[in-house]
Amino acid sequence: MATGPQQKATRAAHPDAAWEERALDQMVRGARERFLQRSRKFVEAGAVIVGETGIDGLTLRTLLQRTGLSRRAFYARFQSKDDLLLAVFEQTIRMAADKYRAALEPIPDALDRLRFVVTTMIFNACAEQDVAQSTAMSREHLRLAEARPVELGRALQPLTDLIAEQLAAGVAAGRCRPLELRETAALIHNLVSSTLHHALLVNAERRTEAMADTVWEFCRRAVVADERTPST
Length: 232
Fold this sequence. Notes:
By secondary structure, the chain is an all-alpha fold.
């Protein structure tokens, strides 16, 4: 049987028939979709478990019971619980960004749109019915920021991108001064996140509305093109 260079030469001289290539492509696509379907099932179940019982309730046993999948299937996709948590973070952030983007459609002014994103992030995290879950997620966020900073940054990117979109629109409309969009968006996102971590983990007497107004005013002053025409 030909191996190595001889095998490559044989395949080059006798390439697969067109129907063989199509069959192979179909098999690969099918296998990929089946793999991703089960992967999504783990992530979606993880998000539901976190929403119902918090981070502490997200155990491998609970996850396998909820999905009906095997331990082997889990470890074929995730090296550890942290890998699953990062996927849950990313899925949650993507869903939030899509929801915010839809809510922004009827808001015409770019600065008002940015204000909506900044303040809604704060209000949602500090909502009374979600505060326990938000606090647990905040702890995990800080832990992963130290243990897996690159992966966490990628998971949070959809919201940073959404902020950058509003800044770009503001610059184009003359509402914002010329900015390094990605850097400024990351700074705003980090400011909101840091404020929330402090509010949830340290400041027991947080006043959500006042906090949201303060953070927004700080952001507005940092990006506005003309202080004489502030956004209200």
